Amino acid sequence: MLKKVLLLASTFFIASFLFGQEGSEIKTYNLKVEDAVELAFENNISIKKSKLNLDLLKKKKNSSWNSISPSLSLSGNYGGTNTGTLDQWKDDKVNSSNTWSAGASVTIAFTPSLFTAIKAAKLAYESGESSYESMVRSVELSVRKSFYSLLYTKENIALQENALETARLTYESNKTKYNLGRLSELDLLTSQYSYESKKPSIDTLKNSYNNSLDSFKQVLGIPLTDKIELEGNLEDLINIKLDEEILNQNYDQIPSVKSLLAQIEAQKNSLQASRMTAWGPSLTASSTASLAGNDKTDDSSLTMNYSLGVRIPLDGYLPWSSGAMSIASQKTNLKSLELDLENARTSAAITIRNSYNAVNQAMAQLSNYERNVDLMQRTYEMTKNSYNAGSSSLSALQSAEENLASAKYNLQAQRYAIISALLDLENTLGVPFGTYNSLQE
Questions:
Q1: Where do runs of H (alpha helix) occur along 247-321?
Q2: β-pair type (227-230, 28-31)
Q3: How far is CA 419 from the centre of its chain?
Q4: Coil, strand or helix: which one is 304?
Q5: Calpha distance 412→410 (Å, rounded)
Q6: How far apart are CA 42 and CA 390, in angstroms?
């Protein structure tokens, strides 16, 4: 019996382990930036939560008329009395009388704020749509920036590893020269230090890359155990086409300005609601019907009641009343938002102009960084040949190596800065990402 129990337990454990392994299969994603964006659209938690809020606002909008929905009720009652002397109770000859009743009522109330409530629900839904779109764009911007940042870090790691390999080759060459008696021990140790000192920074950079990759997976909504391979490079991601027409915008279509316009529309509706509440009449209509009878007679009675009412508030006409103060407060808020709108238009114009100038300036500087790389490459090769010929010092060779690595790093940093600045510009304008940067094939 014990052997059977152990066998069954072992079988169950192995089956559970294999099932778990199958359920936690590791996926590998080969992603271009557009693939990463689509993955985030499908899985990102923030987008899903925003969609839930939008669906709720839609339900509220579709039911915003419910304040005039009739209030219906039904009621019923059954009861009675039993009376008699003690002897009658003993002989079960008491007098009993049972009654019953049933009723129904309907009430309808109409308030002057009905139309503003319906409009408020509609405006809230439109604001929710705008918030949802803003969330989607925010996630897309985050994905694109993170993707390019990871590419930048990945290429930086490759540059650092190339510099490490160059330093290693120099060290190996110097070790050979030292063994032949053609190089001093000091130069050998210096080249060894130059090689060994580069390793920690590469390890740190790789660790930073892996940490950023985990954060990127979280934004994409995929398990941290899945693997990601990024496709593309920064050099092929720059094909920018900007002209001065970008400065001639309808600023009311800029997302930041559109948001304020929506707030102003909602504030106007809120002001109208306050006015209707303070001054507008309210109407009510109700009707009830009741049917009653008893078990002693076959007669029953039906009673019907109805009423119509109107209420006209007068407090709102008093300048010190709460209604009047509410209207004054709403007017002040509306004027404040209108001032914010004027300032937002100016701020949008400044932001667009500054971003446009920054991108153009960075693009103009890019060719200088590219020429610097070519120059440092030639300088390094000439210095290396001169060092091997014995006419240049080790320090001159190391300086040339560092200058070449720095030039390549600066070039990559400039490319990433251009891409990032252009993404910010497109986000400010509210245009689809990639509008002003057609990827080179």
A1: 255-279
A2: parallel
A3: 21
A4: strand
A5: 5
A6: 62
Q: What angle do CA 433, 436, 437 make, to 5 degrees?
A: 80
CB 122 within 8 A of CB 64: yes
Angle at 183 between CA 180 and CA 185, to 5 degrees: 105
pLDDT tens readout for residues 232-283: 888 877 777 777 788 887 888 888 888 888 888 888 888 777 777 767 777 7
The residues facing 437 across adjacent strands are 240
Question: Could you tell me which residues are beta bridge partners of residue 291?
Answer: 102, 302
pTM of the predicted structure, to 2 decimals:
0.74
Among 108, 105, 80, CA closest to 94: 80
In whole angstroms, give the CA distance from residue 431 to residue 265.
24
Instruction: Find all residues with CB under 8 Å of 387, minimum gap 6, and list them.
Output: 393, 394, 396, 397
Integer Cα distance of 184 and 390 in angstroms: 13
Helix (H) or strand (E) holding 358: helix 322-388
Backbone angles phi, psi at 21, to 5 degrees: -65, -40
